[in-house]
Amino acid sequence: MIVGVLAVQGDVREHLRALDACGARARPVRRADEVEAVDALVVPGGESTTISKLVEEFGLLEPIRKRIAAGLPAYGSCAGMIMLAATVLDGRPDQQGFGGIAMTVRRNAFGRQVDSFEAPVALDGLDGPPLTAVFIRAPWVESVDPGVEVLGRVADGPAAGRIVAVRQGNLLATSFHPELTGDLRVHRLFVEMARAGSKTMEG
Ligand code: GLN
Prior knowledge:
alpha/beta; binds glutamine; 6 helices; seven-stranded mixed beta sheet; globular
């Protein structure tokens, strides 16, 4: 099973490293033929407006949209979460995404003055202590449709209760950046989902 990491902008290397450490075969994806060659895809954090522009320029927007709609397992962190959202608030009007998760996300939701912060987040389905979630100009999930599983929320502070991790079928998204912490549990969860998902795709 090959896990691709969309490599147009953002923290690509950190995701490749985390996936490698989970025992997955990880490789960067920059071209449409590379989209076709992966069994799962990670969409890294960075800047969703820039990622949007670059995937259009590189002819990746439609191929990735199509594969996700056809069941490709995908995981988006931060800007990647925005790219997987059906609806984006406070985006640029021309911003494009891959869609896939029936949710509404708000860009830079924690406020511009709160550039980055860490907070413990307990994720449903993960063993062990809460994750140390690193938020960098992060989105939150404003609302989800039925069928989207809420996996984690901010525990306390002004944003207490806000949804920051979700799953819908083969698709996983977090507002935060587990690739920056050395804690492999989220990547492991995704690799397991992807293994299960690609088996289903093979029939
Ligand atoms: N604020 C960024 C955006 O709108 C996301 C930040 C991140 O990925 N760290 O895409």
